[in-house]
Amino acid sequence: MIEMFSYDFMQRAFLAGIIIAILASLSGTFVVLRRYSMISETLAHSALVGVAVGLVAGYNPLWMAVVFAIISAWLIEYLRSAFSLYSDSVLAIMLSGSLAVAVIIVSLGGAFNNSLFSYLFGSILSVSIEDVITIAAFGSIALVMLLIFSKELYFIAYDEEVAKTSGVKVKFLNFLLVSVVAIIIALSIRIVGTLLIGALMVIPTVSALQFRVGFLKTVIISLIFALASVSAGMTLSFYFSLPSGATIVLCVLFIFIVSLIANRR
């Protein structure tokens, strides 16, 4: 462990990974409870469009990923609420459409290179100090929003119609939640990768739910699982020269399997 942290890039990666684990597990709780798990995959592909635009046009891919993910999140929520479309249908349409646009952009711009693959699958080596600062800044905003409106978001997740009749600003909070999730997804793709970030947001919460405890305890357990997965995944990635994103996801899958076995009735 001492040897690993003697490298600056590992210090940056661990710091960014810890921030991402906290944000993904907290937001993932509300996403899973609302049965909206596929939004993480959809927004990840939307963020990939931003990455493609950034790589081709010469802008910061991470900033562009945040912008495109937020726009996509707002569009998804608008289509779902304004046209009474099923959530899974909207997500499927946006997911496939975003992926198609991203592929066309990188193909026309000749951006199929190592930089793109680092965003697809995650790369510890690609995390710069600027990325850490960006992740910390946007992540802090997202975390504050989640904490401030945690009670209302839980109420909406439990029963949206009752929350609406009780005077809760459901539409505003729905847009807020998808915006926060979009920011977290976009920030995460440097560490976990576009194709794998959904697992880090969803699986720790699903694993924690197997223990059948209260909401607060579920959030804490999910947070512990996410932190353990990121720490173990990046450690294994460093010592065995494995892709960081895939290794983190395998660790969280292992925790999920253990939680299923431990709580089998």
Multimeric organization: single chain
Overall 3D geometry? globular
Q: Which structural class matches the secondary elements?
A: mainly alpha
Low-confidence stretches: none
Portion of residues in beta strands equals under 5%
Count of DSSP H/I helices? 12
What is the strand tally?
0
Describe this structure in words.
The chain is mostly helical. It is 79% helix and 0% strand. The relative contact order is 0.17.
Helix and strand layout, with pairings?
Elements (H helix, E strand, L loop, with lengths): L7 H26 L5 H19 L3 H22 L4 H23 L4 H8 L7 H20 L1 H9 L1 H6 L4 H19 L8 H13 L5 H26 L3 H19 L3
Summarize the structure.
The protein is mainly α. It is 79% helix and 0% strand.
Question: Which labels suit this protein?
Answer:
0% strand; single chain; globular; 265 residues; mainly alpha
